[in-house]
Amino acid sequence: MQTINQKRFLHWMDEQAKIGGTDAGGLNRPALSEADLAARDWFHHLIDEHGFAYHMDGAGSQFARLPSQNPDAKTLLIGSHLDSVPDGGRFDGALGVLAAFEAAVTLKEAGVQLPFHLEVVNFTDEEGTLAGLLGSRALAGTLSREELQHPRGGRARLEAGMARLGIDDNSILDARRNPDDLLGYIEVHIEQGTRLESSKTAIGVVTSIVGIRSCWLTFTGEAAHAGTISMQGRKDAFQGAALFARQARQHVIDNFSPGVVNVGQVEMAPGAFNIVPQTARIAVEFRHGDADIFDDMEAALLEIAQESADACNLTLTIKKVDAIPPAPMTPAFVQAVEDAADTLDLSHTRLLSFAGHDAQSLAAVTNSVMYFVPSQDGISHNPHEYTAPQDCINGANVMLHSVRQMAE
Amino acid sequence: MQTINQKRFLHWMDEQAKIGGTDAGGLNRPALSEADLAARDWFHHLIDEHGFAYHMDGAGSQFARLPSQNPDAKTLLIGSHLDSVPDGGRFDGALGVLAAFEAAVTLKEAGVQLPFHLEVVNFTDEEGTLAGLLGSRALAGTLSREELQHPRGGRARLEAGMARLGIDDNSILDARRNPDDLLGYIEVHIEQGTRLESSKTAIGVVTSIVGIRSCWLTFTGEAAHAGTISMQGRKDAFQGAALFARQARQHVIDNFSPGVVNVGQVEMAPGAFNIVPQTARIAVEFRHGDADIFDDMEAALLEIAQESADACNLTLTIKKVDAIPPAPMTPAFVQAVEDAADTLDLSHTRLLSFAGHDAQSLAAVTNSVMYFVPSQDGISHNPHEYTAPQDCINGANVMLHSVRQMAE
What we know:
Two copies of one chain form a homodimer.
Chain A: H1 6-17, H2 34-49, E1 53-56, E2 62-66, E3 75-80, H3 94-109, E4 117-122, H4 134-140, H5 145-149, H6 155-165, H7 169-173, E5 182-190, H8 195-199, E6 203-209, E7 211-220, E8 224-225, H9 237-255, E9 260-269, E10 275-276, E11 279-288, H10 291-311, E12 315-324, E13 327-328, H11 331-343, E14 348-353, H12 358-363, E15 368-373, H13 389-407
């Protein structure tokens, strides 16, 4: 049975981690920073060294192409991203690019003839220090000129990065590829959670990348002297917020697992020891992988919010903030990854991705799947992020055999 | 049966409300502001007009003295304060000064011989725009030079106020009176709550002014990606804070009524939609009138906090902020007020004062009591604060007969 070259692959993983490496053992390689440019140069050199056709698109994403003998074939993309969050870890993204490249090199060296063009990709700015999923959304054609004017990292930072690489707004928007030319996309990534580790499972095949919705909920009561008003007579805005937080958590666990909900921020007014709070404004975010269930989940959470307000004699106002739809993975691609894991005798399970990934950009326009390998203690976006060598190797071997499955 | 001059008294109440009066019908008469100085001049004139001996002490508190025929007699103080909070109401404090003065004028006009000197007092800065209970604590000798350097309203504001009136730190500290010369203190005030109104009771006799303790409770968990960590695996600091707030409220209602607890402020970190909160720091204040029960209440609340932290896999740290002890009123004085109400055939009940008052300063050194008349809807520190004329009159008549009770 064909397997990747473990030693070569792990060496690459070590080499890339030196570029932007931190004293704590992590990576500081934000998109289009000097460190990221150095990592790109290193990867470009690696591609050339192994005889692949190299190209960079207008969004700065890098591609190593292994052409099919059939010039009219579609293209299967495999890869991830080499950029990191500030002070992040050495596996997030880089594993996906290098596992894909190792699989491609293994196939190339074996002279395997594929019925599709294979391209290994390093997408620009997955992490969002500039715009987020920039390269993959540019390729999918879902990035707008408007957003490039107001990227989450600020326009000045994006402009500086574009200038460093020699790209611009127009080239980014021109990076769109015709979906008809694409066969699909496969990505391996660290889990950033503990489900695989705790169940001692080698591979987690993602069936959907969750949608994310967020809103501000404002509970409003009456400011009052915290001494003179009886406990029963208070319209205490924080009691409503607290009741919501407790009940929302339990309701999601009981009825919407594995969906999640978070209350990440609280703003109180007037905000003094001796004044009963008039308003409590809470930042609520929830995620689910199934679009229909997601709607039910939102309805249930807003009902709990209203009930919590009513129970505490408060009024409730809702201000919706973000709504990113779930990105279901392609069943045939999910099956291909599972078959690959079976071929390698690796345990696997299906799960949701609760974080955003380049695969969600691709899922909007083509067949897509991603799968996870274990993250130790689930630590992520942190210098202590760690995935054991064997798990990295498993990820690369599953990529190799997933591509082979697609070829059959 | 002797009663006060209703018309005269209500006229005074209207007159004082013009000094610093606001368009909304309230008062803006912070301590030692120009409006407060004008109110003082008005009161000084009233005292002179009715033939009382006037004096102002080093803290600026004003006194109208009706001397006993026995020069060695002790002094009974009756009164309250003429200052208001910014944009406050027209009854808070002023009612107590003018009801006391009306009672004194009634006694003086009737030629009643008292076995004690009677002094009607307008205490400086009860409300705390400068230091809080400034005049009453100066008289009791419980104000420190240190605090005058760092008053809650800021040193600059205090200095400006002192300069306006011609007093200084030394004169304030010299305002202390020998407790051996004092018989006690009686104060009438609006309730600032709804207990009298809802029970249709005319007079609420305070058995204790509650103590106030406050602390910051910090619940600490682990910041985490709000998507990738399972609900069960989170160490969500806000869940601990929310659980505490809900349970503390219920526990105080069930076990420490009429004590009260408030969570008035919440500070979260990192504080983002998509990050599980690492820390939730909450401002907790609780009040009770009985020193022993107060200790039990604190222990119970801190136990609930620890249990809440444990239940949510969090750690808890406690930073105590303030601890003002309860000020129990003098039983014989409580009885005198109740006897006065009975004499007038006015319904009365015993209750706690959940707000601070000058009587708590006096209670530290001499016999003290205060009593309340109803506040419409409990509205306080607000232009819409209102107490019906008959309730004001009841307050003045109870003061008159309380003084007579003390004389018997």
